[in-house]
Write a structure and sequence with these properties.
single chain, alpha+beta, Ribosomal Protein L25, Chain P, RNA Polymerase Alpha Subunit, Chain A, domain 2, 2 domains, 4-stranded mixed β-sheet, 13 strands, elongated
Length: 222
C-alpha cells in the first residue's frame, strides 16, 4: 500500500453559497464536509493548492486519507468531488470517516498488465476492449487494496475476463458479486478478428468457378 496521503483542514463556520463562493475566489480555499463514524458532521475548508496536489495521486480517490482537522487526525475516504462543469475546478469535497473495525465500500482502480503480449491480441489478431476501469470492493480499512491487477497475458481471442476472475486480497470481496451470478460482468474482452480467422490456402478454397466454366463450354458446343 502506498504512503498515506495527508491533508490539513480548518473548521468552517460560515455557510451558504455566497460564503463558499468567497472561499473559492478570495481565499483560494475549497469547502468540504466530513461525516460518519462516531463524530458529528463537520464543515471544513481545504487549501486549494494542497488539495490539487493530492488529487494528482491516483490513490486519493480510493485509499484512506489522514485529514488533520483542528489538530486532530481523522481517517477518511473521499465520497464525492463536485466540480464546476465549465472549468472543472473543484467546488466541494465530501469525506467519510472510517473505523478500523468496520468494513467500507470503496471503488478501487484496475491496472491492466501484459496488454501488448496478450495471446488473443498478439497471436490471434484480436482486439482488446476494457469494460471497467474500477471495481467497488468491501473490506476492513486495513485490507483495502491500492489497486487490482488484471493480467491479460493468457486471454485468448473471443474470451473475456470477468469480475469473478479477478485476484483480490484476503478479506476483500467484490460488491457486485454479492447480488448474484448475473452481476459477474466482463472487465475486459478480446474480440475475435472479423471474418473468423486466417485466410484459407488456395488448395482449401472452394472451387466456386468450376460450374461456370462447364456451362461456358456447353454453350460454345451448341
Amino acid at each position: 500500500m502506498s504512503d498515506t496521503i495527508e491533508l490539513t483542514a480548518e473548521i468552517r463556520t460560515t455557510v451558504g453559497k455566497g460564503a463558499s463562493r468567497r472561499l473559492r475566489r478570495l481565499e483560494d480555499k475549497v469547502p468540504a464536509i466530513i461525516y460518519g463514524g462516531e463524530g458529528e458532521a463537520q464543515m471544513l475548508t481545504l487549501s486549494a493548492n494542497e488539495l490539487s496536489k493530492a488529487m494528482q495521486i491516483e490513490a486519493f480517490y480510493s485509499q484512506i486519507l489522514s485529514l488533520s482537522v483542528a489538530g486532530k487526525a481523522e481517517q477518511a475516504v473521499v465520497r464525492d468531488v463536485q466540480r464546476n462543469p465549465a472549468n472543472e475546478r473543484v467546488q466541494h469535497v465530501d469525506f467519510q470517516r472510517v473505523r478500523a473495525d468496520r468494513e467500507i465500500n470503496v471503488s478501487v482502480p484496475l491496472h491492466f498488465i501484459n496488454e501488448e503480449a496478450c495471446v488473443g491480441v498478439k497471436m490471434q489478431a484480436g482486439t482488446l476492449t476494457k469494460t471497467l476501469t474500477e471495481v467497488e470492493v468491501s473490506c476492513l480499512p486495513a485490507n483495502l487494496p491500492e489497486y487490482i491487477e488484471v493480467d491479460m497475458l493468457e486471454v485468448e481471442s473471443g474470451t473475456s475476463v470477468h469480475l469473478s476472475d479477478l485476484k483480490i486480497g484476503e478479506g476483500v470481496s467484490i460488491v457486485a458479486l454479492a447480488f448474484g451470478s448475473d452481476r459477474d460482468i466482463p472487465v475486459a474482452s478480446v474480440t475475435a478478428k472479423r471474418g473468423g480467422g486466417a485466410d484459407l490456402d488456395d488448395e482449401d478454397a472452394p472451387e466456386a468457378d468450376a460450374p461456370a466454366a462447364d456451362d461456358a463450354e456447353e454453350a460454345s458446343d451448341a
